[in-house]
Amino acid sequence: MVSIPFAFTGVILGLLITGTSLNIIAALGAIMLVGIVVKNAIVLIDFTNLMRDRNYELDEAIKRAGRSRLRPVLMTTATTILGMLPLALSTGEGSEIWSPMGVAVIGGLTLSTLVTMVIVPVVYRVVVRRSESRKSKETEELEFMEA
Q1: Average pLDDT score, the chain
Q2: Cα 73 → chain centroid
Q3: CA–CA separation, 81 vs 87, rounded Å?
Q4: Dihedral, CA atoms, 21, 27, 32, 38, nearest 10 degrees?
Q5: Phi and psi dihedrals of 130, rounded to 5?
Q6: pTM value?
Q7: What is the spatial distance between Cα 145 and Cα 82, in angstroms, rounded to a whole number?
């Protein structure tokens, strides 16, 4: 969920840079983008959890997941961007309707992919550290009460 706001920021930046207006078709592209962005983050976090289950330390699990899942995330991004490129660059009849979708998806996916590979692991690390800290405090309190 952390990368979704950055996807929408990328949509807005893409539309501003190209001078394209936000319309219902661009909004439809933004909704489609949410699914792709969330999937990319899930791929990364799921592999991190797998590494944690295999008894890797938190930082090492994050590093391994980043290295291992970079290619699948980039492949998904590249294929989607390349698929939307003709839509974004089209100048033929009716292109003014569909072009904003291509621009929105390309802009949002470009920014959110960068964020997914950097910000999502950082947020994951913070959340896990806090959770582990809270659990250890609860355990200490229980041990103190039993003694």
Answers
A1: 90
A2: 9
A3: 10
A4: 100
A5: -65, -40
A6: 0.83
A7: 61
HEC readout, 27-43 = HHHHHHHHHHHHHHHHH
Neighbours of 101 (CB within 10 A): 23
Residue 93 backbone dihedrals phi, psi, to 5 degrees = -65, 130
Structure tokens at 17: 């840079």
Q: Residue 121 CA to chain centroid, in angstroms?
A: 10
Q: 64-82 burial by CB neighbour count: b if 16+ within 10 A, else e? A: bbbeebeeebeebbeebbe
pLDDT tens digits for 42-61?
Answer: 999 999 999 999 999 999 99
Rounded to whole angstroms, the Cα distance separating 90 from 78 reads: 19
Helix %, strand %, coil % of the chain (to 5): 90, 0, 10
